[in-house]
Amino acid sequence: MDSLFSPILLSFKVSVLATIITGIFGVAAAWFMARFRFTGKNFIETLMGLPLVLPPTVIGFCLLYLFGKNGPLGYVLQRFDIQIIFTWWAAIIAASVVSFPLIYRSARAGFEGVENKFESAARTLGASEGRIFFTITLPLAWPGILAGLLLAFARALGEFGATLMLAGNIPGQTQTIPLAIYFTAESGDMESAGFLVIIIALISFVITYSLNSWSDRKVRSKVGLRC
Amino acid sequence: MKRIFVCYLILNIILTGGCQITTKTTSPTEQLLQISASASLKDALGEAKNVFERENSGVKLKINFASAGTLKYQIEQGAPVDLFISAGEEQIEELLKQGLIDDPVIVAGNRLVLVVLADTNISLMDLKEITKSEFGRVAIGSVKTVPAGKYAEEAMRKAGIYEVILPKLIFAKDVRQVLSYVETGNVDAGFVYNSDAITSKRLKTYVIPANFHKPIVYPAAVLKEAKNRELAQGFLAFLQEKEVKKIFKTYGFSNI
Lengths: 227, 256
Fold this sequence. Notes:
The complex is a heterodimer. Chain A is an all-alpha fold. Chain A has helices at about 1-35, 40-55, 55-65, 70-80, 90-110, 115-125, 130-160, 160-165, 175-185, 190-225.
């Protein structure tokens, strides 16, 4: 079971880091898009939602082109002697890209649900924009953001196609749980594959269960206040 | 303010704690060899890797296992590969045409086999017997996408039975599916490689004569842009040594 421990640990590290990164970018983008109007907004919006509709392998193709030696980003990184492809950072990038739309949409819905009057009231009382964001906007949008983060984590955990393309399937270094399941099943090692399937199903179950029971509690507490 | 600082601190710790972006993850005396290899070679190559790393201290092999098509695409996009070991010749030929690799060397071979469930009383003397009406369906990998399927079709055509057996053929998306069809009794027989057949303990194997199809070979080539050219060539030579050929043999591969 020793060789099965590494995909589990790696998947966990990759998913957590990917969720943090995508969370920061997603929340920032969502707040920006919820607050401002500008030309080309719809275009940017569509671009940001693309990873949701594109097959992961296609996303992997695009990322590989971008970060490859001859691609725009890869060329720059090479100057600094930084290699992304075939490292676990490539796995994190792949997972972040595919889970971005999930946190973005959820957070955006959350921010749009925050009534302007609360923020305006805070402004009349002299609060700075930063304070308003962290003490009013963010807490009120938090349910949407948290739901998005959990969705993003689940998506990052299950990421396969783009990871395979960009990070490769290198046991011990970039082989996440989904890759391990696929390749152990392909070589006939059903016990290992089955074990990993149970692990990933367990994690997904726990996340979904806790999200559901938490949101149930929230609904109940809101109803309670009104009574 | 404090919350932002705490978040920043946590982020810093996570980012610097044991993550390395550059290839300089190994100590100055350690050498890293990046290999791209077809997934079917996972077990055999994994063992060869252990032997090589034992015999050459300070050398680490990073092997990326995927389908030959994916590996070829990664190489074309400039992925930092030193050595490419393919389960088929097309990808190697393509890369050779694009001037991305040195001349290839064949490091292993395989045999096409017909497998049946061991505990049935099916006994075959001749390939043509699978066309008999009492004999049930036969599974092969889909010809266009599965190399083993292509060789199976070639063998059946050579034996003159392809047109006859076509209605009984079940096309699977990969070798794994062919094997499970046979193991679950959904078909009476399946065409796979010898290296696939030995992964299952419940099957009886009939080796198809080698002259029924083009040789099944695994060519390997050093990349022209390999960072570690000498080491790659060293490993390539290592793969052709007798002890390594013996390792490959235990996994069902054959000599060329």
